[in-house]
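Task: encode each sequence below as structure tokens.

Item 1
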Amino acid sequence: MKQSLRLGEPAPLRLIHDDCRMAYAWIVTCDADLVHVTVEIAGDIRQAQIATGCLVRPIVDDRVLTVAGTDGVFVLNVLERIGPNYATLALPGHGNLAIEGETLSLTGRQRLALKSDRIDLQARALAFLADSTTWLGKALSAIVERFHVSARSHETSADMLIEKSVNRTTIVDQTDSLRAQLQTVKITGVTAETAQSKVIAVADDLRMDGQRITMG
């Protein structure tokens, strides 16, 4: 029989009501429904139910506090864990759990993982601060009124890149370079270029085709 804190006999049942007693116990088995467990109380094997207020999910060999009454045995709290050094906060039976406060802080000294079929973030302001950020997925959509990117160096790599807009303005303060194997420009209206000087250099052939060509 397991002993309380491994130093003495388990504490005896304590009468807190005519038909209600509290006692230390050990978790023997956990059911698959995550609601019922088997506990050992002073050498007696009993079936118990995890109380709603027991937010630390018990596992086998946990030392817990139980209350026994006419409605059965309930596990109130996990007191000691001699197994792995981790805990899961959850309601019994996969119930919904909400955390609310003026300020909430989650700190992971090594790693923080969020896993879900869907994650929704709602805030008036959202800031990501990291030395490096990686997005991995099949699709990424951004719908905003204004999208602003400021970077000292900006690189985009894709097998196919398509840009579509009603109006587009590109401002290059110094040098604009384009390197391509083949370039095709199709303008349905009028195109105009203004420059102080322009040089066109071709290796083989230069062709200009139109009903009327005016130079000078």
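Item 2
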Amino acid sequence: MKKVAIFILLLAFTLTACSCGTRILCGGKPGDVTQTTFDALAIGMTYSDVERLETEHLVEGYYVFTKNAAGDAVIGRFDPDTLKIARITEYPAVTGDADAFASLTPGMTVYEVVRTVGLPLGSRTFGLNTLDFACSDGGEYRVTWNDDMTVLAVAPVPD
């Protein structure tokens, strides 16, 4: 009788574990996420998790640029040791004007730049550490970064 009761309890536990959000007894290990897409950036996400974000996003080095549900700018930073998102910072959505771009100076952090001029559009250079940003006048500006993602230079993108 005891063996039957133990068997039933183990069966119930196995079925419960296999139907939950993590794979414990179904070929995975604790902490494995079975979710195939994500709707928001979260602490602990890996690069492959970020690639499954349903929102438009840009990955540049250890940084992820995206928007939250309200349309505000979101910057996620990967920890270089664990390669998981360790910091998420949000700023109100802005699109910088020419004066805002003129206020960007060498040494400013990626956070200061996004807070001042908004999220980057992407990078159109090969082999250079740059990001392009929209200007409120319809133009674009290119920010060149060093390896620590601090500003080296800012210039308008030629037409």
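Check on item 2: The first helix runs from residue 2 to 19. The chain is about 25% helix and 25% strand.
End of task.
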